[in-house]
Amino acid sequence: MGDSGWLSDEQQRAWRSFVSMHTALLTRLNAHLQDEGGLSSPDYQILVALSEAPRGRARATALGRETGWEKSRLSHHLSRMERRGLLRREASAEDSRYADVVLTDTGRAAIEAAAPRHVAHVREWFVDAMTPEQLAAFGDLCDAVVAKVRTPTDGPCRIGFEPTGA
């Protein structure tokens, strides 16, 4: 931080550009997910995690780590998705004290229908906006920020997130 505590003009420009890009991109991607597949971005995030999990099943705690959501938000969202038939909860075969979240045939069909269109939009609006070198540098920069954010702190907000592999 500089002497004044404020961001320099270049730091401010970079930060505001990132926030603007993040907001615009996610807003557009979310709108297309909803319009084209009837899925919200949180639905898509959960369905991707389940579709990539062994046998299409995962513990809710693993989904919480994957999404970064608190337990209450995750539970309510899983309940809404369960009512729509996208997933179900079953007793875990490994530990009956816990429930597994299981991708249903309806959920698998939804993610398989939405994913190709979503990937095409990500390619068009994100990947194709950069040269391969810029894309690689952007990925490296994002990794550096994520590593910094996930480093636990000693202050009053001692949050350190576990890596999700994403």
TrEMBL record:
Keywords linked to the UniProt accession: DNA-binding
A single BP term in Gene Ontology: response to stress
Segments forming domain HTH marR-type: 1-147
Pfam families: MarR_2 (PF12802)
Gene Ontology terms, MF aspect: DNA binding; DNA-binding transcription factor activity
UniProt name for this protein: MarR family transcriptional regulator
Source organism (scientific name): Streptomyces spectabilis
Lineage: Bacteria, Bacillati, Actinomycetota, Actinomycetes, Kitasatosporales
